[in-house]
Amino acid sequence: MDQKKIGRFIAAKRKEKSLTQQALADLIGISNKTVSKWECGNGLPEVSLMLPLCNALGITVNELLSGETLDNSYQEKAEENLIGLIKEKETQRAGGKKIMIVQGAALVSSVLLWLLLFADSNVYQLGDFPTPLTLGYLVAGFAAIYLVMMTTWLGIVKRNMMMIFAAFSFASLVCLLISFSHATLWLVPPAAAGMLGCFALSIWSYFHHKRPRQ
């Protein structure tokens, strides 16, 4: 379904009824921002709102989903709209599964990497109690690792190189900050090079994919 077309249709029918966005919103019991979002093509009305919206505009649900006034092609458009709704639900369900997979993979990867990096920490030595500062370092370290892993996995799932390079750039930045705080000067050059290099690659990837192909 064409959200832009449906949005223009809603706006046209609203104006035919001499209704403002606020007046239409009041009739349905929603905010005028929601009406504006529909008319801009940034979303579709929820199923529970379709009938009240259609009643307020004097149209049918099939006309709403088609984004036009229907005549003899009513049955054909009804079938197309039904198929479109089914496909949209399937797409949303698949997207939800992907997010769950990404979160699970990121969490497992983060825990494994966190344990690998801090396995020799004195926190795990018997008789030693971690100070609040040490705990803060460990929590911040895990948060940084998880953020990098989430961004990386999202980039992999979406085949988005910009996100992957951005994640590597952030990881290099964290490494650079740690090297400064612990005066590990030998780590500064590679960390800085990795940060700048991956950041430059993420910018290049963004503009490379944004440029229209001939």
From TrEMBL:
<keyword id="KW-0238">DNA-binding</keyword>
<dbReference type="GO" id="GO:0003677">
    <property type="term" value="F:DNA binding"/>
</dbReference>
<feature type="transmembrane region" description="Helical">
    <location>
        <begin position="163"/>
        <end position="180"/>
    </location>
</feature>
<dbReference type="InterPro" id="IPR001387">
    <property type="entry name" value="Cro/C1-type_HTH"/>
</dbReference>
<keyword id="KW-0812">Transmembrane</keyword>
<keyword id="KW-1133">Transmembrane helix</keyword>
<dbReference type="Pfam" id="PF01381">
    <property type="entry name" value="HTH_3"/>
</dbReference>
<dbReference type="InterPro" id="IPR010982">
    <property type="entry name" value="Lambda_DNA-bd_dom_sf"/>
</dbReference>
<keyword id="KW-0472">Membrane</keyword>
<feature type="transmembrane region" description="Helical">
    <location>
        <begin position="137"/>
        <end position="156"/>
    </location>
</feature>
<feature type="transmembrane region" description="Helical">
    <location>
        <begin position="186"/>
        <end position="207"/>
    </location>
</feature>
<protein>
    <submittedName>
        <fullName>Helix-turn-helix transcriptional regulator</fullName>
    </submittedName>
</protein>
<feature type="transmembrane region" description="Helical">
    <location>
        <begin position="99"/>
        <end position="117"/>
    </location>
</feature>
<feature type="domain" description="HTH cro/C1-type">
    <location>
        <begin position="10"/>
        <end position="64"/>
    </location>
</feature>
